[in-house]
Amino acid sequence: MRRTSPTSVLALPERARDSSTTLWLVDALRQEILSGRLRAGTRLPASRTLAREHRMARGTVQAAFEQLRVEGYVRARTGSGTYVTDVLPDQLLRVGPQRDPAGSSPGKRTPPRRLSQFSARLERPRSYRLPKLRAFRANQPALSLFPTTLWAQITGRCVRRATMDHLTEGTSAGWMPLRQAVADYLNESRGVVCEAGQVLIVSGTQEAVGLVSQTLLDPGDTVCMEDPGYVGAVRIFEAHGARICPMRVDAEGMVVPSVRMRPPKLAYVTPAHQFPLGVTMTACRRIDLLAWARVTGAMVLEDDYDSEYRFAGRPVPALQGLDRRGMVLYAGSFSKVLFPGLRLGYLVVPPDLVDRFSAMKAVVGQHAPLLDQAVLYEFMVEGHFGRHLRRMREIYAARRGALREAVGRHLEGLLEVGGIEAGLQTAAWLADGIDEERAVAAAAERQVEVVPLSRYARKPLPRAGLQLGFAAVDETELERGAVELGRALEAVRRSGGQGGQGGQGGRSA
Predict the structure, then answer these.
(1) Residue 471: CB partners within 8 Å, gap ≥ 6?
(2) Cross-strand pairs, 82
(3) What mean pLDDT do residues 139-144 have?
(4) CATH architecture for segment(s) 387-495
(5) Which of 155, 190, 423, 446 could make a disulfide contact with 273, Cβ separation 3.0–4.6 Å?
């Protein structure tokens, strides 16, 4: 037998001023049903009665009843009324606890896991929360200056105008309009020679390096890398079973490997702004590296992670633009020029390898969300990307100058900063008698962030140094950081003693 509604009208909560009447009524009735005050089979008050008692239009009540019917909370019976359903939709979305058919108790030991060799080589990811922003945080742009309001407006517009193309699965290589926009930008601004079909949209440099490893490397293959260099790439190569051949970095960039060594599969370089030393690879060294690649058959992965921000001399064209034999893979990211949370980057591959890389990405990576790609595309083609780069280049140049002046005032005789030609951070060399790790610890006690250069090196460095970022904080914080770092280094030097080098470090990608 069906239950009827109570004789008294429902006591609904007071409506908030900023909510619509229909949504308020839907929420109120839904809560009455979920709380059990309106039980299964209960007939709701007639729409005319509910409208009169709560002083609202009958059409509003009917619209609320219809919404609840669509959601599965009520059902209408012609000539009888509206009733609460016997089975609520929420019950269909929850699964209760199940008994273990084997009858095992929670305390019993789990059988040994049989993992792949690849997963066994991976390091456990470190979960940590960055402390409050302070000097001299490296590898991070000035996020507070990003035009979030403009980005939100473009995002809203893209969502409102979303088509089936934006809502479907898309292709693994990325959304073609964005690939074309990236190709146009790279051709004009970075001297890269490519067409849109050669551009693969990835989630950042990490995915680009991983995709290259999966497509080119087998366990036991050799990869030549700058030393010191980007530890994030080292971890990926080693996870794939590659042997790392560390190559020294001098004033001209990475020293080119000998053609007499065991032929490597790949060389990884950051020629525009070597990470972490900041050296720009000279033209002669670039030509020598390409000649080496042609002789050995090794591919070259060029990581162009932050070359958009150059402060001295003429812009340096990409190594890929000098390549005429298809030996260079070119990777870049929007993490440094926009914001790390965007997780969008690109990998430019030679034409004859596009199908192989696209097939690999379809298996292991799929694609970034199409709506995010559409927002970035609009940001680029409407000219906002170029304006943002120009604005930030001026700001970073001013902060670069502030850092050098502050170091001169407060760190003379303790720390030496070389020429800062590009990027968001720089290498600085410690005076004799100051240990890196002790300097880092002493700086941290004074709320200053620095990274020892040895964390990026596989072999001992000839001189101890620190990595200092200058882009993320303003001139006032850079001044405070220099004062406190000077006090910390002076204290370490007075205490004397030397420590060791080691550890790991990296940059966001």
Answers:
(1) 140, 141, 142, 309, 396, 399, 424, 425
(2) 76
(3) 90
(4) Alpha-Beta Complex (3.90)
(5) 423
